[in-house]
Write a structure and sequence with these properties.
Layout (H helix, E strand, L loop, with lengths): L1 E4 L10 H16 L7 E9 L13 E5 L6 H18 L6 E4 L13 E7 L14 H13 L2 E4 L2 H8 L8 E3 L21 E5 L8 H11 L6 E5 L5 H9 L7 E4 L3 H10 L2 E4 L8 H8 L4 E4 L2 H6 L5 E3 L4 H14 L4 H10 L4 H14 L2
Parallel strand pairs: 1-2, 1-4, 2-3, 4-5, 5-6, 6-7, 8-9, 8-11, 9-10, 11-12, 12-13
Helix pairs in contact: 1-12, 5-6, 5-10, 8-11
Length: 365
């Protein structure tokens, strides 16, 4: 069997979660004990992605990182499509899977090739967020209609998909893994105060604004700081902090690697995950594995992947969020809930994700 991953994802720079998924998946397939006589190739082509050959096992990655400039996306894509068509045209008699790395991949064809896509979420199709990303909706639909097999990252995502699409090909739910790739022993976080931790993008359905309101309501800034892992705060976000009465010197925002992120989880007095919707939620499991007390939204996917341990709250209510955060701070890192969450999170691994995905590929032939 040949397993090919196309270049579509690698033409984008700001899809970190998807990139992590396909990097871990390809490396896991390469390492799988079930993977005898299977060839794995990530055809990144000409790209401007943050990943490089060094992120993959030897021989798995084929691509060249180049600068991004006006019109580069179209040029790189056209050349990459030709390269992928050449790969698909070549046949040594092996069954071939083409796993699209992002919605809207080129309509390349070979009768021996089975196309697979992963549906990561259905956020933009759901009523509360309808129309927020029309390109994503159209591209996802096009990919789903031509797929020979569809993977879902959670049962919640699969159920949401069924509300919008009929079943027309084989499907399976394969959960993400969760492993921070640390390279050193944990270190204490240099923070002048105990802190509450937020990880990821902050806009829209990520619901960061209501978390800020919750911290302001409880005046938690008097005893705790807020650390955000992600991009720099915008002027509107700084205004939200001021409106909530949270002093600027109580807020830190940073980007970091897995070593520092692991330290932040291990030092946090509460990790807050206030999203109104998610397809999966890897930070939830990362926090649990590192022993963070967790306050998170009471949404189906979080109940699915981590049913025991978090303090759940209504994501539309800053008051409910405030109560859950305060419960975490009161119970501390040694609580029963923290231990339950940590134990549950240990069952998730990227190798299991790769092995289950390989089983799905094989079922298509």
């Amino acid at each position: 069997m040949r397993i090919l991953y196309d270049s579509t994802l690698f033409l984008h720079r700001n899809v970190g979660g998807f990139t992590r998924y396909f990097t871990e998946l390809a490396n896991g397939l390469f390492a799988s004990k079930q993977n005898a006589a299977t060839n794995v190739l990530v055809f990144a082509g000409l790209n401007c992605a943050h990943v490089t050959r060094s992120d993959f096992a030897a021989g798995v990655y084929q691509g060249v990182s180049l600068p991004s400039f006006r019109g580069s996306w179209r040029i790189y894509k056209a050349l990459n499509d030709l390269g992928m068509q050449a790969l698909l045209s070549f046949s040594d008699g092996a069954s071939t899977v083409l796993h699209e790395t992002y919605y809207g991949a080129p309509q390349l064809w070979n009768p021996r090739v089975k196309r697979v896509i992963t549906i990561h979420d259905m956020i933009w199709e759901e009523e509360e967020f309808t129309g927020s990303d029309t390109w994503s909706i159209r591209a996802k639909r096009a990919s789903a209609l031509r797929a020979d097999g569809i993977l879902f990252v959670s049962q919640s995502t699969r159920l949401a998909y069924r509300r919008h699409f009929p079943q027309r090909c084989p499907e399976a739910v394969v959960h993400h893994g969760c492993e921070l790739r640390t390279t050193r022993a944990p270190q204490p976080v240099d923070s002048p105060w105990p802190y509450i931790l937020f990880v990821g993008r902050r806009g829209g359905y990520k619901n960061w604004s209501r978390m800020v309101q919750a911290i302001g309501l409880a005046k938690l800034w008097k005893t705790h700081g807020l650390i955000n892992v992600g991009g720099a705060l915008s002027e509107s976000e700084l205004q939200e902090l001021r409106t909530a009465g949270i002093p600027a010197d109580r807020v830190r925002t940073l980007r970091c690697d897995d070593d520092v992120l692991s330290d932040l989880y291990r030092g946090a007095e509460c990790f807050v995950f206030p999203s109104m919707a998610e397809g999966f939620g890897i930070p939830l499991l990362e926090a649990a594995r590192c022993g963070s007390p967790i306050a998170c939204s009471d949404i189906p996917v979080f109940r699915e992947i981590l049913p025991a341990g978090p303090n759940f709250f209504d994501p539309h209510s800053p008051a409910a969020m405030m109560a859950s955060i305060q419960e975490c701070l009161h119970a501390g890192r040694g609580s029963r809930k923290v231990a339950e969450a940590e134990q549950a999170a240990q069952t998730y691994s990227w190798q299991r994700t790769a092995d289950e995905t390989l089983g799905f590929y094989r079922s298509l032939f």
